[in-house]
Amino acid sequence: MVAKVYTGTTNGIEGILVCVEADISDGLPMFDMVGYLGAEVKEARERVRTALKNSGFRLPPSHITVNLSPADLRKQGNYFDLPIALSVLAAAGFVRMDELENKIFIGELGLDGKIRPVNGTLVLAECGQKAGIKKAVVPKENAKEAACLQETVVYGTKTLKEIVELLNNPDRLEENRQAVLYETSDKEDDSLDYDELYGQERMKRAAMVASAGFHNLLYIGQPGSGKSMSAKRIPTIMPEMTYKEQLEVTKIYSVAGLLDYKEGLIKKRPFRSPHHTISATALAGGGRFPKPGEISLAHHGVLFLDELAEFKRDTLEIMRQPLEDGKVTISRVNGSCSYPAEFMLVAAMNPCPCGYFPDRSRCRCSVGEIRRYRDRISRPMLDRIDICTEAFAVKFDDLSKAKKGADSSSMRARVTEAINRQRMRYKDEGILFNSQLKGSRLSKYCNLDQQKEELLRQAFESMGLSVRARDRILRVSRTIADLEGSEQIKEAHLAEAISYRSIDRKYWGDM
């Protein structure tokens, strides 16, 4: 009799259901596995054979055939061991077949029969849920991760022998159920706060506007002026993620093998800050067995590129398409996969190699050196930055407590109010933030009267803006209006948005 067990495999952060079939028939003692298997899946045969022996299960000296279907899908990963072992045990009569139905099984086996944790458990459990299988048997360490799915019943187990005993005693299996562990919020991290940034209210304002609309932001200014300090505090003013956003971020970290087993659902927005020596593959994702890169690990959060001009130009250029599409697609000979990449780009850079331009009393860089330094960031890349603001040197008098300025708590309250307005406005549009407005939606929600249209036309012509830059000005002005609680974009809102485009023209205008 053929025994069937369901599991899954990953493609990006999406799961594909896989059926593991086992048959034991008369013939020479052999253990054959078929179904377009990767090297690590082929090795499962030896792990399963030894784990069964060391768990006390003696299989008859017969011909064992295991098939993983669909046959045209390449199976890769270490999570097939457990379903293969259970399908063989069921075919041999050690496990009740009716208890294998309507469950998805995930896990790697050690030679001693222990079930080891695997990456991508959440993705695979969700795959089963979408197929109508709402019970998941997973390694004990992965139980909290899989339990993030509120509609899925999760069972965490430690050994193969334990799982067989539980399956043969359904009442005990229910006692082993892993409850859904989902909390609405985490304790706030108060180690960083904007009240520590003195004398840079314009930088704080730019950070607040960027956070309220999920806009890309560039700080440019002298060393020590607080650019990095401001960028690292942006997560403290961003609103909490929705459950859907938390689930997407957790899936990415699960597939990448970066999820803390004790943490379960990731509730804080990611903040990624790669060094400027990072490779294009590490930034965008890829490799022989594709994994998400930094831009996907920053999904629904912040990707901070400090010393932007020190990054290789080719590395920066690879972000252009993900910044527009909100995803990155990795293609290989065996197929392709996509990872989401809806991140907020925050960058900081000096105006010249030494960092002190245009203060010629301190800057000794030649015109050619400055030009080559800024040339590392292309115009198309600059066009994808919504807000550019200067960071001026802080004066000594600005360091007094009387000039402390706004703190993260008050800034976050305003940002949250602005985002709530956007979510109400776009509840039927399938988007969350003003930065996602495109095409007809942009015209609909960023409608200008004749006077404001003339102001925008003058800026477009005098500053030599591209159509993309014009659209980004409209989106930023919509966000500024939301921060001020206005349903209509006013002239002051549009003028502020235009001012954020004038800074990059100041430094790149002569290029």
TrEMBL record:
InterPro entries: CHLI-like (IPR045006), MCM_dom (IPR001208), Mg_chelat-rel (IPR004482), Mg_chelat-rel_C (IPR025158), Mg_chelatse_chII-like_cat_dom (IPR000523), P-loop_NTPase (IPR027417), Ribosomal_Su5_D2-typ_SF (IPR020568), Ribsml_uS5_D2-typ_fold_subgr (IPR014721). It comes from Anthropogastromicrobium aceti. GO terms for molecular function: ATP binding; DNA binding. This is YifB family Mg chelatase-like AAA ATPase. It holds the Pfam family Mg_chelatase_C. Residues 406-501 form the Mg chelatase-related protein C-terminal domain. Signal peptide: none annotated. Gene3D superfamilies: 3.30.230.10, P-loop containing nucleotide triphosphate hydrolases. Residues 193-395 form the Magnesium chelatase ChlI-like catalytic domain. Keywords: ATP-binding, Nucleotide-binding.
